[in-house]
Amino acid sequence: MSILKLENLTYSYDSSKTKVLNDITYEFEKGKVYAIVGKSGAGKTTLLSLLSGLTTPTSGKIMFDNKDISKIDRYKYRSQCVGVIFQSFNLLPHLTAVENVVLSMDISHKKIKHKKENALSLLSKVEIDENKAKRRILKLSGGEQQRVAIARALSYNPDIILADEPTGNLDLETQDEVISIFKKLAYEESKCVIIVTHSPTVAESADERYLLSSIN
Fold it and tell me: Cβ(136)–Cβ(95) under 8 Å?
């Protein structure tokens, strides 16, 4: 059963009648890894922004758990139902790894007991030990920072993980490790993992691939 469904989704910028995305219908299920692929300018990042609730469709619907996200609390959806991972990590550099994860818990407003202990457990799950968890972000490697970003996205236990080029800044070995983490999240924790990627390796590792074609 689908957790996220696109129904005739269309998007165009306010200043232009040119459509970036046109009449997309697709379903995403829990327990699977999806890759969104396509040439630059095809609208991959725009689609991710729409799925995360940061952008509103020009027409069509995005259904989360059979509810139109335009008709539910958008803040709650963004801060509790979907976890977003960015290519540039978007971590707060003056905080430690564990502090970044705890802050995400605070922002979600979910009732989470023993936040620091839970944060350390999440970081351990992505192979960040307690010593590294207590380091400031700039003291960690790029691969380690991406692992922290994944733990942060998991901090409020969302059903959906959205990742925008999550391996774009990583070497091949670290890329494989991050892919492995995403697969475990899907297969062992029944998350719906949606990855925008240019990497053929990442795309081939996904259970399903959705090709976005440029409209113009």
Answer: yes
User: What are the CA-CA distances from residue 30 to residues 1, 4, 108, 185, 188 (Å)?
Assistant: 8, 9, 21, 10, 11
pLDDT tens, 185-203? 999 999 999 999 999 999 9
Cα torsion at 169, 175, 178, 182 (round to 10°)? 100
User: Is-contact 54 86, C-beta < 8 A?
Assistant: no
CA 36 to CA 97: how far, in whole Å? 29
- Burial letters 109-136, b for 16+ CB under 10 A, else e: eeeeeebeebbbebbebbebeeebbeee
In angstroms, how far apart are the furthest CA atoms of the chain? 52
Residue with tokens 């970003």: 149
Q: For residue 216, is pLDDT > 80? A: no
DSSP 8-62: EEEEE-TT---EEEEEEEEEEETTEEEEEE--TTSSHHHHHHHHTTSS--SEEEE
* pLDDT for 15: 59
115 Cβ partners below 8 Å, 6+ apart? 102, 105, 106
d(CA 110, CA 99): 16
Residue 213: both structure tokens together: 């074609």
Q: For tokens 């999806």, what's the residue?
A: 34
**Residue 55: both structure tokens together:** 């952008």
